[in-house]
């Protein structure tokens, strides 16, 4: 489903103003991901573990096509992400990737149902079909009675579950989850993990987490430090 070969991603930071300035000798290059090679296929629930700053979120963004590598290749659904335009990458993500962002990124003006249905607008489904799909997914994550509530009316854990439901809306082949249980209590977190494990029976799921409960559910675990994969378990 997705493969990285020799992937490195660097960023420039620093300088006298705190940002890069052309010719500013104080600016420095930071390597967030360094020479990572990994292939993830349907049926896998792959975990990414490591301390803050180890490169987990950057690697997730590369896998999802939200970013492109400085060197190396990321191939998503048979397409090398660096070889196409940002518009083509957007279409590629819509067709193949569902993302659970660490900080939710829900649209505050929309209801839970509207947020989950939003990714379906570009798929050509009717409004009735979008509503039915969104309501079914919200029921699946235990929010069947909260479909009309806006994010500001939901707890952090409820917003997280809306984000999970939204990631599944288009029935993607690849699901990317950044700390999917970070705002959840143990019981609710277990429910979300059960759902992701069920989803992983016929698609690829990648979860970055500090939560040992989440990491214990993975079929393969990659440990990162300083942008490099140090160990592979499973």
From TrEMBL:
Keywords in alphabetical order: ATP-binding, Nucleotide-binding, Transport
An example Gene Ontology molecular-function term: ATP binding
InterPro entries with a match to the protein in the record: AAA+_ATPase, ABC_transporter-like_ATP-bd, ABC_transporter-like_CS, ABC_transpr_LolD-like, MacB-like_ATP-bd, P-loop_NTPase
Natural source organism: Halobellus salinus
The ABC transporter domain, residue ranges: 2-234
Gene Ontology CC annotation, any one: plasma membrane
Superkingdom, natural source: Archaea
Gene3D superfamilies according to UniProt: P-loop containing nucleotide triphosphate hydrolases
Protein name: Putative ABC transporter ATP-binding protein
SUPFAM superfamilies found in the cross-reference section: P-loop containing nucleoside triphosphate hydrolases
Keyword match ATP-binding: yes
